[in-house]
Design goal:
The chain has 882 residues and is mainly α. 65% of the residues lie in helices and 6% in strands.
């Protein structure tokens, strides 16, 4: 890593920080800025091991007048967001790898060369990329803490940094960019960073579409252009025109699992919004093409299509423009509840693609290849990826909701009680009805409101072209009947549209039985005829980790994938695994390249689906340059896993993992499920109770409003522990497992062998190391000191911190390192730079939580807002929060 690159990052942090300081001074005076600097200095010296400074920081924060608490939290929150901008800008400009580990993530060109050296022909490389199907599924999980209006300002700040850096020969440009930067930072400071209302599912979908409009619309053709150039150098040919190695789907407006705000009406509205926005974006492309394609030379096919005109390309494009304008008008009318009385609209991808392809072929046929492969090729690539809907919308619903419909139906028809039947009876009934030609559901059936909503969702499916929709995911799936039920409802209500149906296995028990369930499904002849020998299965990372602890869950996920690959191979069925990952380690997060290459061999066979959620969408796809690099990372990883798969684990490694997972699971459950003090401790020491007031997403923080931690969703569960820097869900249990093995003969040797030779285990340890470096037990201890009174709860906290210290010692022993992140200095630097700005927010949050509890939740509006800003700031500082 060159000295200049470090300097570039530091310079930009300084430029943004100085500008923020001037803005705050203009608003609140220099004396207030001096207070901020005093707090930061205490925090910085405290981080250098000065315990007196740590105490002085806490005392200083506690003595702040109430009027200062909100602006102080806002100042540190804003700085952390600006530091993120500087780091993201650095990554985009210098194409830094995700984990800042030199050589850990190859660029595509290097990988193509390596694949060719391994015996893959140039033709094989082109075919593999052409047939690759990586689908990135944008989800609205509530971890994006920053308002959209601020994200737009931050994007503009990034553009200013680019302008300043490139103005060396034009100082007046640099001066203008600096002035604009000051204006934007002032705008951000004077904008409320906390939403006043929870976003609706439609708001979330609009945010997802905005990412496509502002970033991916440009990044997608750029990615294909780079790929084409690589393939021309390597294989002498381009990627086929209709190939789309990386595509996009969405859950925003389709994920109704535990979210009563996502209704059939919402899903319909989001689908229409996608059509409207797609039409609007394509109109801009078509207008540009109509302006540029003024040529008169054309092949006979295009002349026949255009008629006797001087400019045949413009004629074809003019007709397309008319239909696209009609499409936009139709979608707008539908959204507004009006009747549409205009001309014919574009309903399918092919209706847009075919005329453009005709223009492309004509230009090539008459020797105008350079023009064909310009803006027209970019638009063809967009159509291949985005279709006419921007994304495919997935739908997700819990298995019990489908079973409820069938239960009500069988009761109404006098057939018995579906829920009382065993699995064999259920399958027999469902298969008979799937084969039957008569309708099962009475035309005027009076069912419950819950069942009516499920049926209305299938009616939306029936009204759509299949290319607008992705996969139907069944959460909490446990038996083949859960899948057959959805197939039956789709047949009864969904008309001619049949979507892929993916069972989601997410608890430890469900993961252990996933292979058996799919094996039973694929053995049913009636089912095989429905799926065209293609099966999708979703692996849940969040709930399995919450259920069993991270180490046991990771091994269960790995074994489930192995089992599913073997089952589908045996049945001759193509398997696509759908990974439900989050941003944090506790939810399967981490660098995409390492994560994909740590999967079992054969599980990534040219196809992969993976969720991208919350704040990670912005970090990976929020700007064109970052999105371009993210797509390259995914393409690299899937290509490598397909052509150069990782080695299978040795039998003795598997035995080691079985034992490690068993010990870790027992230790985790012993605390989280069996210690009567654990739930009271969690509620007392974390901001879990206040978290529900932070208007992050449209979904409730709990599946049920009654009950304990088991009802809490995995995201707020992890978010709450992250806020106090204990990060407990991602490590609890691992320490006992590693410590026990290290005490045994040969333990260290075999763990190091697995770390060095098995990507699954090596990646797990890398993620654990990063997690331990971000955690801070001293901060967790301060929350406990301020918020916990019960001696038994304090004793539990002390035990948890001791377990953490033991785990850190064990990890360093396995890695043979003196300190964490020795080999990834940029991550270490990123954490160290942020800590003096996060520490005051922790101190203020603990103080505000105590004041809130003392007042029974009736603190002033300013203090309540300050508490929410501390949550937003800590989340921004630690980045992968949910």
């Amino acid at each position: 890593m060159s000295h200049d690159l470090h300097e570039s990052l530091r310079d930009n942090v300084r430029i943004l920080g100085d500008s923020l300081g001037r803005t705050i001074a203009d608003d609140l005076g220099q004396a207030f800025v001096d207070k901020i600097e005093t707090i930061r200095a205490h925090a910085k010296r405290g981080r250098q091991g000065d315990s007196l400074q740590q105490r002085e920081l806490i005392e200083y924060l506690r003595e702040l007048p109430e009027r200062d608490l909100l602006p102080v939290t806002r100042a540190f929150n804003q700085f952390l967001n600006l530091a993120n901008i500087a780091e993201q800008h650095y990554r985009a400009r210098f194409r830094r790898v995700e984990d800042y580990k030199p050589g850990s993530q190859p660029v595509l060109g290097e990988l193509l060369a390596r694949a060719e050296q391994a015996g893959n022909s140039p033709r094989k490389l082109v075919e593999t990329l052409a047939n690759m199907r990586v689908e990135l599924v944008l989800t609205a999980h509530p971890t994006e803490v920053i308002r959209r209006t601020l994200i737009q300002k931050y994007d503009a700040i990034d553009e200013c940094l680019t302008a300043i850096e490139s103005s060396e020969d034009y100082p007046e440009r640099g001066t203008r960019a600096q002035g604009r930067l000051e204006e934007l930072i002032s705008q951000a400071w004077h904008t409320d960073e906390i939403r006043h209302e929870r976003p609706t599912p439609v708001d979330e979908a609009k945010w997802g579409f905005a990412v496509i409009e502002n970033s991916l619309w440009q990044a997608v053709p750029d990615f294909h252009r780079d790929l084409d150039n690589l393939l021309l150098d390597t294989a002498g040919e381009r990627l086929p025109l209709d190939a789309a190695p990386i595509r996009y789907a969405s859950w925003m407006g389709g994920d109704r699992d535990g979210n009563p705000n996502v209704t059939a009406r919402v899903t319909r509205e989001v689908l229409l919004l996608g059509r409207w926005m797609a039409a609007d974006l394509y109109l801009r492309d078509l207008e540009q093409l109509k302006t540029e394609l003024s040529m008169w030379k054309a092949n006979s096919a295009l002349k026949a299509e255009a008629g006797d005109v001087a400019e045949p390309y413009r004629e074809v494009l003019k007709r397309l423009l008319t239909r696209m304008e009609s499409t936009r008008d139709w979608a707008k009318a539908e959204l507004e509840g009006r009747n549409y009385d205009g001309g014919p609209i574009i309903e399918t991808r092919d209706q847009l693609y075919s005329p453009l392809l005709g223009c492309y072929r004509s230009l090539c046929d008459v020797g105008l290849d350079t023009i064909a492969n310009g803006a027209l090729l970019d638009t063809l690539r967009r159509v291949a990826v985005f279709g006419v809907t921007l994304t495919k919308l997935d739908l997700r619903q819990e298995a019990s909701r489908h079973a409820q419909v069938i239960e009500e139906l069988t009761s109404t028809l006098g057939l018995g009680h579906y829920r009382e039947w065993d699995e064999a009876q259920r399958q027999e009934f469902l298969l008979a009805e799937l084969a039957s030609r008569r309708p099962l559901i009475p035309r005027r059936w009076e069912c419950s409101a819950e069942s009516r909503e499920v049926l209305d969702t299938f009616k939306v499916i029936a009204q759509e072209h299949s290319e607008a929709l992705g996969t139907y995911i069944i959460s909490m799936a446990a038996e083949p009947s859960d899948v057959l039920t959805v197939a039956l409802l789709m047949k009864e209500v969904g008309g001619q549209v049949t979507l892929p149906i993916a069972p989601l296995f997410e608890t430890l028990n469900d993961l252990d039985h996933a292979g058996d369930v799919v094996d039973q499904l694929l053995a049913i002849p009636g089912y095989r005829s429905l799926i065209d020998d293609r099966q999708e299965v979703m692996i849940g990372y969040s709930d399995s980790a919450k259920d069993a602890g991270q180490l046991a869950a990771a091994w269960a996920q790995y074994r489930a994938q192995e089992s599913l690959v073997n089952v589908c191979n045996r049945h001759g069925v193509d398997l696509t695994l759908f990974h439900g990952r989050g941003g944090t380690v506790g939810r399967g997060g981490g660098p995409a390249h390492a994560a994909i290459l740590s999967q079992p061999p054969g599980s990534v066979n040219g196809s992969l689906r993976v969720t991208e959620q919350g704040e990670m969408i912005r970090f990976k796809f929020g700007q064109p340059d970052i999105a371009l690099r993210s797509m390259e990372i995914y393409a690299c990883a899937v290509l490598e896993a397909t052509l150069l798969p990782p080695r299978a684990p040795e039998p003795h490694w598997r035995e080691e993992m079985d034992q490690l997972a068993k010990v870790a699971h027992g230790a985790y459950v012993g605390v989280v499920r069996e210690d009567p003090d654990f739930v009271p401790y969690f509620r007392a020491v974390t901001p879990e109770g206040a978290l529900g007031r932070l208007p992050l997403g449209s979904r409730p923080t709990k599946r049920r409003q009654d009950g304990g931690v088991e009802t809490l969703r995995a995201i707020p569960w992890i978010f709450a522990w992250t806020q106090i820097r204990l990060m407990l869900p991602a490590w609890l249990g691992s320490g006992e497992a590693f410590a026990r093995r290290l005490e045994q003969p040969g333990g260290r040797d075999v763990l190091q062998e697995m770390r060095n030779e098995w990507p699954f285990f090596g990646t797990y340890l890398d993620m654990l190391e990063m997690l331990l470096a971000k955690a801070d037990v001293a901060i967790a201890a301060y929350y406990e000191h301020r918020l916990v009174d019960e001696p038994s709860l304090k004793a539990l906290g002390k035990k948890l911190r001791h377990r953490f210290a033991s785990l850190e010692e064990a990890v360093l022993d396995i890695l043979q390192q003196e300190k964490l992140l020795e080999n990834t200095p940029l991550i270490r630097q990123a954490i160290d730079v942020r800590n003096p700005y996060i520490d005051p927010l922790h101190g203020l949050q603990a103080e505000l939580l105590q004041r809130n509890r003392d007042a029974d939740g009736a603190i002033s509006a300013d203090l309540s807002r300050a508490l929410m800003v501390t949550m937003a700031g800590i989340a921004a500082g630690l980045r992968n929060t949910g």
